[in-house]
Design goal:
alpha/beta, 5-stranded mixed beta sheet, 15% strand
Length: 362
């Protein structure tokens, strides 16, 4: 999927009508389905992490104290502690940014996770969109971002496209007077965390990096993430937070997941995800009419196929949940997002997908 980069005038689009609050969990809620709709790593949280979280329950009578977890996150990224803010999941960070950042022209790069735009709209902002297209593999040309945008939000790797944008291109968007928000919720699923800008917080003007512990560690129900930014921005966001926003069990998890052994485990998981993704792509590549966006770098892939809504319903009837793509701005009814799973699950899924498509077994 290659083609000319979009120019800035072509890339800008208005809000349109999509359900920004539809997320993958809606595909599996209340149903007994094999889950390829939610991008949380299967088989998590690991037993050692459950034990650390359980041990924190003895301290529930005390108010949460985030100092140790904040120090652990700062050390994990080699940053001063004043550049770290712990949040109730990365989603809370989008709400804080929408409330605290005084932006005249916020712009969100789409397709991507829809909560940033939803939070900005809820806070009264008039949000512009930079729409990337499949013609050039959903890659971002920095020139497509308007010069006067004073708040820019982009995912890396991007949900749902799984595209990993070069760090240099994203860094070129940073400038005085602009807040550049890079959502790295899936960066720990990328081997070596290549293209991360986390280590450049405080160096690049206005850079804000968001991280989540939900995806790799299976903590969606616990709600824990963090913001990396300059000390002044962290202070502004903290003032927009309620008191004690992160629970003691979540703080215990954040501290534990930043320890050397946990980082090594996450790195090994990222390598396995890469191998499992390659297997999924190879199997999909043998199905007629299935087009994969890419190159994919995250723990999920985006595919286009005719009649995706009917395909999704057919998969569901046969026990598999996948994420619809038409609620992401810039995508349409022919797109589906598939989480990367182990090879056995992938093989079962692709066999069923071939059946739904009426294709010969592959």
């Amino acid at each position: 999927m290659t083609g000319p980069a979009l120019s800035a005038p072509e890339a800008i689009a208005g809000p349109g009508e999509v359900d920004l609050r539809h997320h993958g969990d809606a595909e599996v809620r209340g149903a007994d389905l094999t889950d390829l709709a939610v991008n949380v790593r299967a088989g998590t949280p690991p037993a050692w992490l459950k034990a650390r979280i359980a041990a924190s329950l003895d301290g529930l009578a005390a108010y949460p104290d985030g100092r140790a977890a904040r120090r652990a996150v700062a050390a994990r990224h080699g940053l001063p502690v004043e550049r770290v803010l712990l949040t109730s999941g990365a989603a809370e960070a989008f709400v804080l940014l929408a409330r605290a950042v005084r932006a005249r022209r916020p712009v969100v790069v789409h397709p991507q996770f829809t909560e940033p735009e939803a939070a900005l709209r809820d806070a009264g902002h008039d949000v512009g969109r930079v729409l990337l297209t499949g013609r050039d593999g959903f890659r971002l040309d920095p020139a497509a971002v308007p010069d006067d945008a004073d708040l820019v939000v982009v995912g890396n790797p991007t949900n749902p496209t799984s595209v990993l944008h070069p760090a240099g291109g994203l860094a070129s968007l940073a400038r005085p007077g602009r807040t550049l928000v890079v959502d790295e919720a899936f960066m720990d699923a990328v081997p070596g965390e290549r293209e991360s800008l986390a280590g450049r917080v405080g160096e690049l003007p206005g850079l804000v990096v968001l991280r989540s512990l939900t995806k790799t560690w299976g903590l969606a129900g616990l709600r824990v993430g963090y913001v990396l930014a300059d000390a002044a921005t962290v202070g502004e966001l903290a003032r927009a937070q309620p008191l004690w926003p992160v629970s003691s069990p979540a703080l215990a998890a954040a501290e534990a997941c930043c320890e050397p052994g946990a980082l090594a485990e996450a790195a090994a998981a990222a390598e396995r995800i890469g191998a499992d993704r390659a297997h999924l792509l190879a199997r999909l590549g043998r199905l007629p009419g299935v087009e994969v966006a890419g190159p994919a770098a995250g723990p999920f892939v985006l595919v286009r196929l005719p009649g995706a809504a009917a395909v999704r319903a057919g998969l569901r009837a046969r026990g598999f949940a996948v994420r619809r793509g038409d609620t992401f701005p810039g995508l349409g009814p022919d797109w589906l997002r598939l989480a990367v799973r182990d090879r056995a699950t992938t093989d079962r899924f692709v066999d069923v997908l071939a059946e739904v498509l009426g294709a010969a077994p592959v």
